[in-house]
Design a protein that fits this description.
This is Dihydroxy-acid dehydratase. The protein has 547 residues and is an alpha/beta fold. Helix content is 39%, strand content 12%. The strands form four sheets. A six-stranded mixed sheet has the order 12-11-10-9-13-14. Helix 19 (437-445) links the parallel strand 10 (419-422) and strand 11 (453-456).
Length: 547
């Protein structure tokens, strides 16, 4: 905003910018564009972002803007995999959004180009765009190349499974050297790549660029073009509230169904809707689950990687397949509508991206389950559930945490036909809604994922598969039914029927509820405590906002 930088009253601002190396003409006359960069040396998903951010800034300068780069927090979920610290990841989304908000408000940027790759970091950037509501976009870090080991392609999730499958330390070392061979987000349909893809659908990432692999130098060229486009976006005045409409978010839900994206995308889409004041609920996910089958054969729904997905046509190809169902009048970030954009895209059905007429699965990539165990909704990815456990009736084995369940699996206490219940790991209970990497990887490693069910108020990694039901709400900490389950109770998981049921009478549940005592918060200080005291429930996105 020119008025912020001109006149005698702005002298103290200008001198700070001049002292940082900016010229008077740049400060006074050009749009100031913040470049929040989630560069961090400790992860392949973010260690290459300096170069991408530099290309973005070159584009901004070339188009007549003034870039101002600043750092935002970044982590890698795999670092905390299996540790208590994993519960910081969901909280991190809100911390990232607040970091961008804090710096951008003080510096009064005219626009933003955020650089991010992974999980809750990129979701936090999208949330920041919605909250700031100034012309904003995101440049993704792209996906990692798959590794190669013993003649086959491997990804990081293969290492997790091998760890619990009896592999020796020497064998694990060989895999460690192979599974992550480049920079970029792990190349399966985890949260990172799901959210990168959804950025295109949400009008925050330039069309066709989200999934360019980190190793493809087109990523740098497109980052430079994104910087140029950001200046045009600022001059046009188009804000996230103009570009992320209800129809755009409904298109995002359909896309997520089609690609069998990470279940975490539900939290992030709902949070975007709440931040923008748009009425989107789990009922919308239920509605489109009836219409949209999975057409994407990327791990874990199929054998391919996100690198394959990109070269098979990427997001534009999926959107073209979905065109009969989409809101084609929805706006497009580079002008016009999605319908106009898709008129120039040719459908290319292939082994990675199938057509709606010949889908990979007849089922959707995501389904909402209800029932007395989760009256407010629970989530499953049907395409990642083996056929033998799409319907399972079993005795409950109850644990108040991921590690306790993991130790029981390792000790051989879980047998085929059991239904594991893991509770007090939800938004408030963890706090932070932990991903259950320990217990689920152990189930897969021991071959129990085809005979055992799992129900939890926690969430899962996009790498995970099995009869795993998450996001159960109300969560245990709020006194939900999951808090009342006792060892040996009968639980029915009916994925085709959309139900998860505790076979205990209402009268008995009332008695148990009367005797239930809410435990103290696990964290009594710091950001986890703040999150637990301010977050919304999972079915509203689980963000730290007192809406």
């Amino acid at each position: 905003m020119e008025s912020y930088w001109n006149g005698a009253e702005a002298a103290h601002r200008r001198v700070m910018m001049k002292a940082a190396g900016y010229s008077d003409a740049d400060i006074r006359k050009k749009p100031h564009i913040g470049v929040p960069n989630s560069y961090m040396e400790g992860s392949p998903g973010s260690a290459h972002l300096r170069q991408i951010a530099e290309a973005v800034k070159q584009g901004i300068w070339a188009a007549g803007g003034v870039p101002v780069e600043f750092g935002i927090p970044a982590t890698c979920g795999n670092i905390a995999n299996g540790a208590e610290e994993l519960k910081y990841e969901q909280v991190g989304r809100d911390i990232v959004a607040m970091s961008v908000e804090f710096v951008s408000r003080v510096h009064n940027f005219d626009g933003l180009v955020m650089v991010a790759s992974c999980d809750n970091i990129i979701a936090g950037c999208y949330l920041a765009a919605a909250r700031m509501n100034i012309p904003s976009m995101v440049v993704t870090g792209g996906s990692m190349q798959p590794g190669h080991h013993c003649g086959k392609a491997v990804v990081e999730a293969d290492l997790d499974v091998a760890r619990f499958s009896g592999s020796t330390e020497e064998e694990l070392m060989e895999l460690e050297e192979a599974v992550c061979p480049s920079f970029g987000a792990c190349p399966s349909m985890g949260t990172a790549n799901t959210m990168q893809m959804l950025g295109e659908v949400m009008n925050l990432v330039m069309p066709g660029t989200a999934t360019i692999p980190a190793s493809d130098n087109r990523k740098l060229r497109q980052a430079r073009e994104a910087g140029k486009f950001a200046v045009k976006l600022v001059k046009s005045g188009r804000r996230p509230s103009d570009l992320i409409t209800k129809e755009v978010l409904l298109n995002s839900i359909m896309f997520d169904m089609a690609v069998a994206g990470s279940t975490n995308a539900v939290l992030h889409i709902l949070t975007m809707a709440y931040e923008l004041g748009i009425d989107i609920t789990l009922a919308d996910f239920e509605k489109y689950a009836e219409k949209i089958p999975c057409i994407n054969a990327v791990i874990p729904s199929g054998p391919y990687t996100v690198v394959d997905f990109h070269y098979a046509g990427g997001v534009p190809n999926v959107m073209k397949m979905l065109e009969p169902h989409l809101f084609t009048d929805a706006p497009m970030m580079n002008g016009g509508t999605w319908g106009e954009y898709l008129s120039g895209v040719t459908a290319q059905p292939n082994e990675v991206i199938h057509s709606l007429e010949k889908p990979l699965f007849k089922e959707p990539g995501l389904k909402i389950l209800r029932g007395n165990l989760s009256p407010n909704g629970a989530i499953v990815r049907p395409t990642a559930v083996p056929d033998p456990v799409k319907y399972i009736r079993g005795k409950a084995k109850v644990f108040d945490g991921d590690r306790s369940a993991f130790e029981a699996i390792e000790a051989g206490e879980i047998v085929p036909g059991d239904v594991i219940v893991i509770r007090y790991e939800g938004c408030k209970g963890a706090p932070g809604m932990k991903e259950l990497m320990l217990s689920i990887d152990a189930l897969i490693g021991h071959g129990l994922h085809t005979s055992v069910g799992l129900v939890s108020d926690a969430r899962f990694s996009g790498f995970n598969y099995g009869a795993i039901i998450g996001h159960v709400s109300p969560e245990a900490y709020d006194g939900g039914t999951i808090a009342l389950v006792e060892e040996g109770d009968e639980i029915v998981i009916d994925i085709p029927g959309g139900k998860v049921t505790l076979e205990v009478s209402e009268e008995e549940l009332k008695k148990r509820k009367a005797a239930w005592v809410c435990p103290p918060l696990k964290e009594q200080k710091g950001c986890l405590n703040l999150f637990a005291r301010n977050c919304r429930p999972a079915e509203e996105g689980g963000a730290m906002q007192p809406w």
